Each structure stands twice: as structure tokens, then as C-alpha cells.
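Notes, p. 3: input format for complexes.
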Amino acid sequence: MKDWFKSAVVYQVYPRSFMDSNGDGIGDLQGIHSKVDYLKSLGINTLWLCPIYPSPNDDNGYDVSDYLGIHPDFGNLQDFAELTAKLKSEGIRLILDMVLNHSSDEHQWFQESRTSKPPNSYSDYYIWHPSIGEDSTEKPIPPNNWTSIFGGSAWKWCQERREFYLHLFSEKQPDLNWENPRVREELFEVCRTWARRGVDGFRLDVINLISKKKGFPDVPDSLLHSPDQHYSCGPRIHEFLKELHQEVFAPFGSMSVGETPGIDSNLAALYCARERSELNMIFGFDHMCVDHGPGGIWDPAVFRFEQFFSILSHWQEQMQRYGGWNSLYVENHDQARFISRMCKQEEFLNEAAGLVATLLLTLKGTPYIYQGQEIGMRNVAYQSIEDYHDIWTLNHYRDSVESGDRPSEVLRRIHYRSRDNARTPMQWNCSENSGFTNGKPWIKVSPSYPDVNIENAQTDLKSPLHVYRSLIEIKQNDPVFIEGKFQRLESRLPGVFAYLRGERRLIVLNFNAIQMPIGDLLGANTKLVFSSQRDSCHGPLDKLQPYEGRIYS
Ligand code: TEU
Ligand code: CA
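Output follows (553 residues plus 1-O-alpha-D-glucopyranosyl-D-fructose):
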């Protein structure tokens, strides 16, 4: 089907934390297989799997040591084939996560590259640079001030080659050299192989970082807290993406979504406007930064709702203007749980989750639902750093404590921000370890599981699960929610976001913990067709309940 990505409703699975089939405490492919029926019942039609390849797990699979294999923790190629067959029989498409900006340092390419200089065939597979001198302790000085997104210098000295290599993420994730045509061809062939194995599309990890700025200029002071803006959009980025499109996506009809930190709505269309033949859509980050303080991601600030609404509207309008397509998300494996960020009233978390569902499924674009989001899974607050596993979190803790921050203060930031908030095991039921494993889970289960779990949600009419289900069905049966024009309506009520889809669908969302009158937003003939809260009352002089979302027609 042409443009099937426009009617896709994507569910993202973090395989380590979804379902464990063999009691080793780690989620796996057979575990996912056993839950396909659940996914089907939710109504989603596309599944995105985070990396499933062999990896030393310095960054939980985003450090790939063999692009064509399956990590033994997850199973093998036979399990993969069984899963794809099962998905196909249920009409669910599959997209895989491709990590093409960097590999693991344990990949054979890097093992060869680190010990050899040109003309050895692997010597230029990565980004090598001589030192620019020695400091007073005779340590080599790296070529510039670039810092890794996970902390520390982005350059690591390699004694064998007597050169630095670049790693924008951990030092076990050396950046691949896309300037080398052989590297590009290897990576294209990797994607083609998975397409031949039946994969329908790709989520491309940090794809806008693959082309590096010529001459490696220093990061300016103003961007030191968000250096990814400096690393993104190198001079050959669009050329490389067009090549990927021509070599892989076009011949296989694969769907493509690029993860693009540091791209704003004005640049976005350059990546996904249809006639440019690059990507189908991208994941922007603007709207995920509305609770960042001046110190960047580890500096939590109050959630700025009005900014959130205007960023979302602006992306909607830009994509409409330039013929691009939006991806709609508020959670993934890198983000803390959204309702914990947005809603400070414990008693309204379920309502807030239903409101978010209404937002994601009624804006224009392809919605991405992250595992557990549909039942309102929330942040955890482990009291010991020992209970955290994410490399970014652990680095932040170590660096902050070393530089004199109080450990309790650092933990407070981690509770709010850590990526592990999204990585606690999926909560299936109220049995031990939330039904995720019979063994010891690789990461602690959230203490919320006895209440918040799939089994409870099925019977609890207040669970956001039902809002997701109903709205997925509405979206799939009403083309206005796919192609209908987006138009924001000015609302004088603070914290209320209202817009039209097409001519006749009005969506009104109350992001407040109090009731809001909405009479003046509604025309005389508007009739309520959906409320995210079943028990609220409806009439022309009606009030929106705390965190309620409604659709009128
Ligand atoms: O994430 C990229 C990433 O960490 C940044 O985009 C970050 O979120 C942003 O700079 C915040 O401002 C991807 C994967 O999703 C993540 O899990 C990996 O750790 C990372 O790439 C490295 O592969
Ligand atoms: Ca397992």
C-alpha cells in the first residue's frame, strides 16, 4: 500500500524489558511473540523493536557488534523468523532500529581499524585524528573540545594507532566514517539484508549526526550543554540520506523514520519533505525540552505548557506547508515517563495519560506509543544509584558527585530524568515481578505494578488503556484523522489546547488539574463524539474535567 506509514499506529518495544520467556530476567523475542495477541487487541498495526543485535551492552544494544545477528539474550534468527511470521499473520508490520552512526568498539571492523593505518582496508572505517600536541603531563591533546553526549571528551586515545578516535556517545561506540564509500555500502547492505528478511521499515538512530563538520570546529560556548546541535546537519547529510533512500528505502518500499536531535521545525522539512526523497518522517526533540532548564537535560525545570502547545502546532504547520509528515511521540526508551513530567498530581495520573492518548491520536502524523504508556506507567525513584543501569545516568552521577554535587541532589535529578524510568519491566499483572519474568529481572520492577498493570487495566474502565483502544479504532476508521488539515484554535483558557482536523472535527484538551469551561470554543451545532473520561457530563455549558480530552464533530 502506498504511503502506509501515514496510517501506521506504531508500538515501540524495548526488548530487554518487555517479556522474558525463559526466566533469565531479560526480555526476548519469544517473549514478544507471546504478546503479539495483546498488541493486536490494542489495535496497533506496526511494531518497532529497539536493537536486537549482538552487543556488549555498554549502551543496551545501541553499541552493535554484529549488524546481521541476533543477541543470544534475545534468541536467534529462527526466533526472529517466527516472530515476523506471527506478526505478518496478524497484519502487523515490523520496523527495526538501525544504529548506523556508530558501532561497538567490539565490532570486527573496529578491531581491525584500531590496529592498522592506511592502506589497510578497515583503517578508514572510523574517524581517526592525530593529537594536536601534549599537555604538561605528556598526555596527548585531542583535536577539539567536543564532548560526548554521555559526558567527557568525545575523543579517546588509542595506544595501538597512536591516534584519537571520535565517539559522540560512549567510548565503546566509535563513530563510523560515512565519508568512506565502502562504509556506506556495508551499511546499506545491512539494511537490505533485513529488508529481505521481511522487515518493513527502519528507525534510524541519530541519523542526522552521520556527516561531520569539515575541520572539526570547536563547539561554541552557547551550545556546551546541548552539543548535539553542533554535531548535527553536517555538510553531506542530505546527500547521504538521498543515497540511503535510493539504495535501500526506494527499492524495498521501506518506511523510514530518522531520530534527529538538534533539528528544529524549520529544518525538519529538509529531511522529510516528500519530493526530497530522504526520509518519511523524523523524531524532533523541541517539544521534549520544554521542562529543561538552562543547564540542559539534567537541569529539570517546570513544564512549560504554552511552549509545548506552540511547538507542536508549529511542527504541524511546517509539515503541512512543506509536504512533510510528523511523527508524534512523547515517550520512548530515552525519555522519562511523560505523565510524571507533565502532571504533578498523583491522583490525576490516569486522566493525564488518557489526555496524552487523545493528543497523540488526533494530531496529524504517525503516532508512536511506547510500551507501558497505554496503562500510565510512571517514573520510579530508586534510593540507591546501584539500582540504576543506564550508562548516561551512571556517568551523570559519577561526574556530578566528583564535581562536588550532593549525592541526594543528583539522585533527585535522576528520579526526574533518568532513561531507566522508561526501562523498568513491562507491568503485565500483579504477580511477582509484574509477570515480566520468573527469574530475577535485570532491572528492578517499578513498585507501582500491583495497581498499574495490563491485567487490571483490562477491567478498570478508568485505565488509559481504553482511551488508547477507542482512539486507535476511531483513527483507523476516520480518514480525517489521517489526512485532514490541522488548524489551531486560539483559546483564552490557559493550559487548554484546541484544534480542528479537517472542517468538522474539533479537539479540545484540558491540561489543567481543575475544571475548565469551554462554552465559547464550541459552535452551536457541535456534538461530542468522544471523551477521554467516560463519566464526565456533556452539554453546551459544559466544563472540561481535569486532564480531559474531547473530540467534537
Ligand atoms: O539517542 C540519541 C540521544 O541520546 C540523544 O538524541 C539525546 O536524547 C538528545 O541528545 C538529548 O538532547 C539514541 C538512542 O535512542 C539512545 O538509546 C542511544 O543511547 C543513543 O542514540 C546512542 O546510540
Ligand atoms: Ca529471556
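The pocket of calcium ion (ligand 2) is lined by residues 20-22, 24, 26, 28 (CB under 6 Å).
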